[in-house]
Amino acid sequence: MIIDSAEVIVTSPDRNFVTLKLTTDDGLTGLGDATLNGRELAVVAYLKDHVVPLLLGRDAHRIEDTWQFLYRSAYWRRGPVTMAAIAAVDTALWDLKGKAAGMPVYQLLGGASRTGLLAYGHASGRDLPELFDSIRAHQAQGYKAIRVQTGVPGLKSIYGIASNATYEAMDGVRYDHEPAQRGSLPAEEDWDTRSYLRHVPTVFEAVRGEFGPELPLLHDAHHRLTPVQAAQLGKALEPYDLFWLEDVTPAENQEALRLVRRHTTTPLAIGEIFNTVWDYQQIIREQLIDYVRSAVTHTGGISHLKKVLDYAAQYQIKSGMHGPTDISPVGMAAALHLGLSVHNFGIQEYMRHGARTDQVFQQSFTWQDGLLHPGDRPGLGVELDLDEAGKYPYVQAYLPFNRLADGTVHDW
Fold it and tell me: 261 in a domain, yes or no?
């Protein structure tokens, strides 16, 4: 099974996606997701100019050898662009192998460890009534676990609040459930940590009062806190029994999580912007986190993220794979196959793509009673409609950024 051609496809049905399509000499095709939100064209160039020429003529069955070749032969290792490109190749090769075997990828990974994958959705609101409406709407869609993001008094627009003005596209239409905006410059948002720390515990008190103790609740601090502030927030939220508190502080400083861990028992989810097992080495070994947040798309593909999760399993740390709409349906399917197979699955982030995206990427995974399943089609179970994809060319888009009241650029 020799790789005969490799094509990099950029399409923007509801947002920008980068897809690698490999075709073998016996006519099989495999897809990989290489989307890097806000930096998509950097990965396109890396794939087209550096990776694709190395793939032609290679044996598509040699997944591990190809991964090691692409990682080690470049000399310049790691980083989101490199690892997203490698992830696309790796995922496409797993798709090809599944199709060649006539089996879904999860069967090649050892078979199912469960019947379905618990998923959480994103509820948000500028105030409590709007937030409560959003939680109820997600429950009506079948979600059994809910991430709660809220507006903060005095701040005009912050991450995770779908109804905020900065979450609208240039034409006034919301840009596919996420804060990326189409336009030539990123949107500027405001931030005040003290206001946030005062407000968030009162929100969770109200949510628990309204929805009871059984509903699993999650929250994303989005790297905005210092270690001391993160510890304060984790401690303040302990009475509300969170499923997890995500990205409380920039995790590049991994020693900082020791301080957070000493002061709160609130479970921690870290790693959305990590790319390799080496990013996780210390915080897994020292048991400073409870959930691995990486996406297949940004962490070297199925092969490498499985190694991260196998390492984490030694310390009773579970998966919590990144799965918003800046992960394409191809990347989402890869996460579902991996999550179904590993023993230490925790929960899967799941945001529904827009109707145009679902036309471009035709999917086999199912959503029923709060559980996801990748389906049993051979490979990943996703097919790309090239005619539909061609209707939606790339559109420049950026994630927003933060400034404090005095004008200082802050973590976003």
Answer: yes
Contact (CB, 8 A) for 152 and 195: yes
- Per residue in 326-359, is it b (16+ CB within 10 Å) or e — as a string? bbbbbbbbbbbbbbbbbebbbbbbbbebbebbeb
60 and 144 share one domain: no
Residues 227 and 353 in one domain: yes
H and E: helices and strands count for the chain: 14, 20
Residue 402 is encoded by which pair of tokens? 């933060």
Integer Cα distance of 146 and 167 in angstroms: 20
Residue 95 lies in a domain: yes
Q: Is 77 in the same domain as 151?
A: no
Is residue 366 a contact partner of residue 375, using CB atoms and an 8 Å limit? yes
Domain membership of residue 317 (yes or no) is yes
Q: What's the number of domains the chain is made of?
A: 2
> Looking at 222, 298, 304, 337, which residue is catalytic?
222
Model-level pTM? Answer: 0.95
Q: Do 30 and 84 fall into the same domain?
A: yes
Q: State the catalytic residue, choosing from 159, 196, 280, 392.
A: 159
222 is catalytic: yes
How many Å apart are CA 331 and CA 334, to the nearest integer?
5
| CATH code for position 63 | 3.30.390.10
Q: Is 199 one of the catalytic residues?
A: no
Residue 400 or residue 304, greater confidence: 304
The residues, ordered by sequence, that sit 6+ positions from 212 with a Cβ below 8 Å of its Cβ are none
The answer to whether 14 and 357 are in contact (CB under 8 A) is yes
Q: Are 152 and 192 in contact (CB under 8 A)?
A: yes
**224 burial class (0-12, 13-18, 19+ CB within 10 angstroms)?**
buried
Same domain, 208 and 270: yes
Residues 97 and 129 grouped into a single domain: no
* Cβ atoms within 10 Å of 270's Cβ, excluding its own: 30
CA dihedral in degrees (374, 86, 354, 158; nearest 10)?
A: 120
Write out pLDDT tens, residues 353-394: 999 999 999 999 999 999 999 999 999 999 999 999 999 999
Are 151 and 178 in a shared domain?
yes
Q: Which domain covers residue 13, as residue numbers?
A: 3-103
87 contact partners, CB below 8 Å, separation of at least 6: 32, 33, 34, 296, 297, 298, 299, 300, 301, 304, 331
